[in-house]
């Protein structure tokens, strides 16, 4: 086509979308039979399966799983919200969840909230709008609105890595309070009495809050003071652990032990070398998580071992069970942990 000497190409006509009724018409069956062909093929005759198969191949029809799920008031989607995707602990949880959801032909949606309860609330609201069949959250610290939305929706919900508080629905994890209490008490039993605590920030992180409470309780039960200058927080980075210990030791040179996590604890170990402090003779150090890094140095880090991948598997199994049951016998699963006493402690 030409206009004023300019040639235009006529746009191609968009091909009409093939619908289920088109397949049914071509196969000579009802739309309900076509629907059963995709959902429960064993419930229709072999002859009808063959007819529908030929019609699907000829038309190029592909079912919309989201539409069919919404019409059935459910989806094959499960969501997990983690604080960050930068930490291997959360990667292990996701791997465990994925192994369960994939086997059940469900898709796992992954989001991170940056340790923000406000961001978590927004993500939960979005996932509920997608009518997900289950939601996994890390920790038990949530906004009131998040709790209300999940409880009112009836969506199967599992909280991970902490299980001391009553759950929204279900929980899989450990007592961070007890684990921290026991490792701090272990240091006290080994003769340490000026023990510092270096961890990630407590904002949006109930696991750290519980560990700080466990550390404080162990000191209190032993008659030792809980000193503000012996407590520090830093983001997950080895150098942040080194910096926090340097500042703490300069304020309180009598520090003889540090309770921490693996990443920050390795930073403490590094800073001790820089300051010519012997580990564990001068300063004992403990971590939490049993990351691979904790055992690669000559002086291996004492730490707390927990199976986070298995926790992810257990969480996925609980979500699947709750999709078909209104209630389950064991809503809370407490996982064991192990203190690995290594060379950074006497």
Automatic annotation (TrEMBL):
KW ATP-binding (keyword) present: no
Single GO MF descriptor: DNA-binding transcription factor activity
Domain HTH lacI-type residue range list: 18-72
SMART domains: HTH_LACI (SM00354)
SUPFAM superfamilies linked to this entry: lambda repressor-like DNA-binding domains (SSF47413), Periplasmic binding protein-like I (SSF53822)
Keyword field: DNA-binding, Transcription, Transcription regulation
Listed name of the protein: HTH lacI-type domain-containing protein
Origin species: Sulfitobacter alexandrii
């Amino acid at each position: 086509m030409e206009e004023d000497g300019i040639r235009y190409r006529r746009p191609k006509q968009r091909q009409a979308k093939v619908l289920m009724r088109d397949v049914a018409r071509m196969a000579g069956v009802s739309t309900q039979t076509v629907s059963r062909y995709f959902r429960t093929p064993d419930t229709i005759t072999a002859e009808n399966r063959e007819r529908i198969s030929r019609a699907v191949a000829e038309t190029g029809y592909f079912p919309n799983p989201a539409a069919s799920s919404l019409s059935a008031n459910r989806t094959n989607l499960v969501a997990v919200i983690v604080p960050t995707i930068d930490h291997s602990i959360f990667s292990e949880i996701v791997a465990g969840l994925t192994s369960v959801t994939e086997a059940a032909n469900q898709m796992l949606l992954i989001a991170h909230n940056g340790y923000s309860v406000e961001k978590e609330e927004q993500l939960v609201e979005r996932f509920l709008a997608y009518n997900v069949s289950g939601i996994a959250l890390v920790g038990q610290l949530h906004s009131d609105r998040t709790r209300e939305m999940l409880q009112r929706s009836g969506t199967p919900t599992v909280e991970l890595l902490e299980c001391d508080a009553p759950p929204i629905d279900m929980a899989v994890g450990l007592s961070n309070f007890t684990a921290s209490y026991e490792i701090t008490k272990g240091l006290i039993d080994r003769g340490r009495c000026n023990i510092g605590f270096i961890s990630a920030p407590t904002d949006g992180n109930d696991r750290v809050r519980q560990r700080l409470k466990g550390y404080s309780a162990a000191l209190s039960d032993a008659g030792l003071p809980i000193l503000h200058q012996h407590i520090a927080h830093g983001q997950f980075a080895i150098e942040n652990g080194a910096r926090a210990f340097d500042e703490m030791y300069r304020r309180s040179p009598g520090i003889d032990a540090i309770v921490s996590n693996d990443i920050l604890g390795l930073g403490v170990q590094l800073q001790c070398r820089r300051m010519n402090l012997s580990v564990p003779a001068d300063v004992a150090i403990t971590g939490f998580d049993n990351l691979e890094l904790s055992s690669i140095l000559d002086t291996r880090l004492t730490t707390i071992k927990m199976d986070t991948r298995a926790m992810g598997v257990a969480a996925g199994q609980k979500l699947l069970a709750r999709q078909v049951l209104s209630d389950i016998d064991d809503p809370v699963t407490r996982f064991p942990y192990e203190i690995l006493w290594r060379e950074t402690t006497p």
